[in-house]
Each structure stands twice: as C-alpha cells, then as structure tokens.
C-alpha cells in the first residue's frame, strides 16, 4: 500500500497557508499528513493553531543559538523523529542554511507572493504595489541557498485592479495562495 507522505510545515507568522494545507488534507484533496510544524517565532499564531489541532511542534528562538548550523541540526533531528518526507515553507521568513538543505535536498518547497524573479525578499506584495505593476502573482518553487531563487514549480498571475489598496492586493494574493499551494503539493506527491 502507498504510504501517506509526511509534511513538515515551517512558518513564522499567521499561518493562513498552513490552514489551507490543513483544510485540504481534511477535505481529502491533499493526500498527506502534517507530522510537524516548525516555527522560529515562539509567539506566532501558527503554533497556537498547530497545538489546537494536536500537531507536533518544534519552536525555537534563533537568538538563543550561537549560529544557524546549531539550530538546524536540532530541526533535522525533529524532522527525522517526525519522519518528514517534505518541508513546506509557508511564510518561514528565514533563509534555509546548508545543514537543512543537504539533509532534505530537493524536498524543500516555498511559496512566495510575487511572480518570481520579480520582487524577491521581504514584503513582495508591498514592493509590487509600490512599483505600480498591473500584474503580480504567486510562485511556488524549490528552495536553494539563495533568497527566492530555486527552480520554479508553479505560478499564477493576479491582476492589480486600479481600485486596489494594498490590503485588497494582499487578499487577492492570499486567495490564490490558498488554492495553489495545496494543489501544487498534491501534484508533487503524485510524481
Ligand atoms: C505568504 O503570503 C507567503 O507567500 C509569504 O508569507 C506569507 C505568509 O502568510 N512568504 C514569503 O514572503 C516568503 N519569502 P501566512 O502566514 O498567512 O501563510
């Protein structure tokens, strides 16, 4: 029998993409299980949500470690204990280092709220809004050592209406993210 794939979701904030993935699993449209939620922000909403769902969590404060290698060694241990097959970055606002990249080569996926390679880095929605582009969107890509530079897996465009305030654009992007991420993970797991 085919084994259900185990996902580790990494997030730093609200966790609306975590919610979308979790909902897709509950709805049966994503055939996977979240076996670990990792956060670098102990007070993040995503950790509260994960705990309410009874999911295993690994929370760390980067400031209490001498460097990235040391906390990533602990993350890898937690991932192995959770028997994670894939790492799903969902608003994890930190560059992944060599320790984690080598342990999960080709198995780390990220979502970014722009049409990469445009608007890399922080506040991609604000960058697009301020640039006045008429089309932006969402990218799902493999993670490498760069910032938002790995091989692109899926993209979807979002039109920036002339009437949009920044918050409207953020909501339009989120609607696309919450559909595209679970669907893309599902098709990756089928390969
Ligand atoms: C999402 O829009 C995601 O694309 C973005 O952070 C947000 C997290 O929202 N990620 C990046 O900017 C990565 N460079 P969420 O916590 O509600 O899922």
Automatic annotation (TrEMBL):
Gene3D superfamilies: Formyl transferase, N-terminal domain. Residues 6-185 form the Formyl transferase N-terminal domain. Keywords: Purine biosynthesis, Transferase. Transmembrane segments: none annotated. The active site is at residue 112. Its EC number is 2.1.2.2. Coiled coil: none annotated. InterPro entries: Formyl_transf_N, Formyl_transf_N_sf, GART, GART_AS. It catalyses: N(1)-(5-phospho-beta-D-ribosyl)glycinamide + (6R)-10-formyltetrahydrofolate = N(2)-formyl-N(1)-(5-phospho-beta-D-ribosyl)glycinamide + (6S)-5,6,7,8-tetrahydrofolate + H(+). N(1)-(5-phospho-beta-D-ribosyl)glycinamide binds at residues 15-17. The record marks 148 as: Raises pKa of active site His. Pathway: Purine metabolism; IMP biosynthesis via de novo pathway; N(2)-formyl-N(1)-(5-phospho-D-ribosyl)glycinamide from N(1)-(5-phospho-D-ribosyl)glycinamide (10-formyl THF route): step 1/1. PROSITE patterns: GART. (6R)-10-formyltetrahydrofolate binds at residues 68, 93-96, 110. CDD domains: FMT_core_GART. It is an enzyme of class 2 (transferase). Catalyzes the transfer of a formyl group from 10-formyltetrahydrofolate to 5-phospho-ribosyl-glycinamide (GAR), producing 5-phospho-ribosyl-N-formylglycinamide (FGAR) and tetrahydrofolate. Belongs to the GART family. This is Phosphoribosylglycinamide formyltransferase.
């Amino acid at each position: 029998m085919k084994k259900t794939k185990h996902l580790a979701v990494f997030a730093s904030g609200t966790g609306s993409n975590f919610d979308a993935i979790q909902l897709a699993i509950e709805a049966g449209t994503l055939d996977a299980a979240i076996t670990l939620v990792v956060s670098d922000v102990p007070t993040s909403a995503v950790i509260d949500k994960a705990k309410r769902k009874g999911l295993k969590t690994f929370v760390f404060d980067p400031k209490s470690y001498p460097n990235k290698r040391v906390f990533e060694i602990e993350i890898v241990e937690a991932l192995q204990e959770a028997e994670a097959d894939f790492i799903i970055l969902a608003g994890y606002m930190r560059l992944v280092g060599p320790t984690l990249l080598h342990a999960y080569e080709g198995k780390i996926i990220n979502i970014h709220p722009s049409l990469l390679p445009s608007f890399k880095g922080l506040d991609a929605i604000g960058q697009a809004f301020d640039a006045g582009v008429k089309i932006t969107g969402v990218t799902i890509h493999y993670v490498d050592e760069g910032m938002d530079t790995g091989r692109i897996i899926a993209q979807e465009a979002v039109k920036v209406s002339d009437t949009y305030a920044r918050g409207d654009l953020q909501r339009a992007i989120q609607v696309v993210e919450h559909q595209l991420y679970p669907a893309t993970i599902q098709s990756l797991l089928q390969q």
